[in-house]
From TrEMBL:
This is Peptidase M23. The lineage of its organism: Bacteria, Bacillati, Actinomycetota, Actinomycetes, Kitasatosporales. One of its GO terms (molecular function) is metalloendopeptidase activity. Pfam families: Peptidase_M23 (PF01551). It comes from the Bacteria.
Length: 226
């Protein structure tokens, strides 16, 4: 059943990329980027062009390293991404939210990362909040809905029906749902139902070091400034 639904969510590829502002500020790295492969994640849940963002502060401690065995997991508060503001990439209307999922410990070792694969499969069979954790869906118009996932429990500043402006603080990054460590999962889709919608591509303006601003999507492990 999941395979059949995923096939139906494969985009036709004729939707032009939607220009948006980046939903974070400061230095970040891109992971699972559509700049490297499509689908970047999977067609399921309209994640064809989704991207994951991890914060890298210019000053202060970096995220703890991945280990072979010990410690098997860490508290999300030990990661600089945890608690970072998530911003609206465009004007829009909030159409759905989830806010009660806990921020679990990270999957920061080989045993816990193996567990993550089984956990992710089980989560994908449930409601979107089981996979995405706490999330916000923002209708930006023209049949485009922006999705923000793995948000921190208790950090949401909006609720369904709210009108927001580009750059407005919506919530904070967390580690809820199917997440190995605190990060922001961002995607665009054609409707507010992630089980039937199709993914939509997007473009950002970003900078690599002191280079001139670029338009597009940063590739995997690229350190960029929003």
């Amino acid at each position: 059943m999941r395979w059949t639904l995923t096939r139906r969510q494969r985009p036709t590829g004729d939707h032009p990329p939607v220009p948006l502002r980046i939903p974070v500020e400061g230095p970040w790295t891109a992971h699972n980027s559509p700049a490297d492969k499509v689908p970047s994640h999977t067609h399921s849940h309209a994640q064809t062009y989704a991207i994951d963002l991890i914060h890298h502060p210019a000053e202060g401690p970096e995220a703890p390293p991945f280990t072979n065995l010990w410690p098997p997991a860490r508290r999300p508060e030990h990661y600089p991404t945890f608690g970072q503001p998530v911003l609206a990439p465009a004007d829009g209307v909030v159409v759905a939210t989830a806010h009660r999922m806990r921020d679990h410990w990270t999957r920061s070792s080989l045993p816990s990362y193996a567990y993550l694969y089984l956990e992710g499969f089980v989560r994908s069979l449930g409601w979107p909040c089981h996979l995405w954790g706490n999330y916000i869906l923002l209708d930006t118009g023209d049949n485009v809905v922006a999705g923000f996932a793995h948000l921190r429990r208790g950090s949401l500043r909006v609720r369904p029906g709210d009108h927001v402006r580009a750059g407005q603080h919506l919530a904070d990054c967390g580690n809820s749902g199917n997440s190995s460590e605190p990060h922001l999962h961002f995607q665009l889709m054609t409707t507010a139902d992630p089980t039937t919608a199709q993914g939509v591509p997007f473009t950002w303006h970003y900078r690599l070091g002191t280079q001139e601003p670029r338009t597009g999507v940063p590739s995997n492990t690229t350190l960029f400034t929003a």
